[in-house]
Design brief:
By secondary structure, the protein is mostly helical. It is built from 11 helices and no strands. The protein folds into 2 domains: about 90 residues; about 140 residues, Tetracycline Repressor, domain 2, CATH 1.10.357. α4 runs parallel beside α8.
């Protein structure tokens, strides 16, 4: 009898242990589910706030592009931008510290596309005059696509010393990239020698002329009759520079 009782007790204890273990397992599962449920709303709120912040920033940038397209940079007011974006002044300054920072953000949106376009120039130059002229047409199309930014960038260089420094820095990086990409004339602009410094000035002047002419064509300041002439002359000048 004692043995049978011990067996029954052992069985009961074993069942009890297994039942308790099962209960603990289920409780842990429920606890985890509850924890996940508590986390989901927080994660959803965070995702929502992130999307809302991104949408607000995009709305401000869109409004700024429109305001800058219709007003000179010095005359464009922050108030006009945040009103058109449909946000408050406080919200505007949560995203941008100043009008200049906003202008930099617009420039930063298109700078990578410009760099990628110039990265394709060495390959275009391998096809001679026709390849370079086709590349110039793509550069004009780039300015047409971003015509809201072209006058803004030109005015920023006139009125904002910090922006002039950024343009110079980006131009230097562009010259280096073209040199590293296989354009010998741009490669000779690298280094500290007097000859390299002279070549660098030549390269900078050429790139500035190309950018200014393509921007003018994009704005319609050059007639349809003269546009092919401009493209041909610019292509010849660029090909000659690359060959020198």
């Amino acid at each position: 009898m004692p043995g049978r009782a011990n067996i029954r007790l052992s069985l009961w204890c074993g069942l009890g242990y297994r039942s308790a273990g099962a209960l603990r397992t289920r409780w842990d599962d429920v606890s985890n589910l509850c924890a996940e449920k508590r986390l989901l709303p927080a994660n959803s709120r965070a995702a929502y706030l992130l999307r809302r912040r991104s949408a607000t920033r995009a709305a401000i940038l869109l409004a700024a592009r429109d305001v800058f397209a219709h007003a000179n940079y010095p005359d464009a007011r922050v108030e006009d931008i945040f009103r058109q974006a449909g946000v408050s002044r406080a919200t505007f300054y949560m995203h941008f510290a100043s009008k200049l920072e906003l202008a930099f953000a617009i420039y930063d949106e298109i700078a990578p596309q410009s760099a990628a376009l110039f990265a394709s120039l060495p390959r275009a130059a391998q096809h001679g005059l026709g390849g370079v002229e086709a590349w110039l047409r793509r550069f004009v199309a780039f300015h047409v696509e971003h015509r809201y930014a072209t006058p803004l960038i030109a005015q920023l260089q006139l009125f904002e010393k910090e922006f002039r420094g950024r343009i110079l820095e980006d131009t230097e990086a562009l010259i280096n990239a073209l040199g590293d990409g296989g354009c010998e004339s741009f490669r000779r602009a690298q280094g500290q020698s007097e000859a390299a410094a002279q070549q660098r000035v030549r390269a900078r002047l050429l790139l500035n002329r190309i950018a200014a002419a393509c921007a003018a064509m994009a704005r319609g300041e050059i007639s349809a009759t003269e546009t092919p002439l401009y493209l041909d002359l610019l292509a010849r000048e660029l090909v000659q520079f690359i060959k020198d």
